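Data availability (excerpt). The following record was deposited with the supplementary files.
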Amino acid sequence: MSEAASGTGKNPARLYVERVSVPAADEANKWIAERVGTLGGDAFEILQSVGECKADRLAEGGRAEVGETFAGRIFGPNAEIRWVRVGSGYLLWWLSEDSQARRPGDGAASMEEVNCDKPARATRHYLVGYWDDGLGQFREGNIPGEITYSKIIAGNPKKGDRVYVDVVEYFVGEPETGLSFSSEEEIRKFEIELNKPRVIAHRCIGIGCDRDREDGGRRENA
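Predicted structure:
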């Protein structure tokens, strides 16, 4: 992942968030269509509906609709759009580090700027399951109830590969230090510090598959 794509760097990160609530699917689809061009590069989708969770490259032409989903996200190197169905309506978010991608003239009057205390950090999260050449699927047999799923991304997975999602995480604050624990008040301050969230936001930037280097490729067709 490049520094530009991942949002990482030496300076504290700035994240721009646009959020809206709409009463119906048609308005949600229109809102998404107006912003899908900001994703940049290869774009992907993760769509959740009753009985199915789909992850794949975004359809050619960048068309994305809420359809039968109760939650979803589409994302690329530059931005992410996500939504959740609430009753018959939808809550939607757009997240990016590019303040110029959406302007008030584009209808982004609700833009919020989130200032972070630290640089953003790019992380890679591997999904369960290893590519099984014989099955032509990803397979995870080491937990109760074997999980299998088909190839969900373009490319040619090899034996032992795992699917991953690349994510950028945004941080605030550092725990207060120098507490003496000499009183109940000091102990309470320590508890509060421990329970403060450090990751205040995240956005997905890509999907791929390869060997998990930390896993060392030890488990292949487990």
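Summary of structural features: The chain has two domains: 10-115, 117-222.
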